[in-house]
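Structure tokens please, single chain.
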Amino acid sequence: MDNIDKQRVIKEGVPKVATRYPFTVHMEEGIEYFYCTCGLSDGQPWCDQKCDGTQFKPIKICPLRTGKQLFVNFNRALLCGCKRNTGNKPQCDGSHSVINLDW
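Here you go.
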């Protein structure tokens, strides 16, 4: 199944929907995190290098403080789960509620 999904990501140039809701995460200051943008990772929302060979690359996150209150204008670190965010990645922008998520 993973290989079929990866072929589809490469062919269509669209990330796989990892989940239909945002990830609420706790991160530690001083630790580098790599957010998955392709949707193929088994360790969502974090990258496990399944993006190799696709046009997608992980987004590096370096929190300035520990906890869930990490992004300006957000009271939690809500990371996009649908991978269809139209801006401000990796933060969830609600795209999962307004687009067709058939895959």
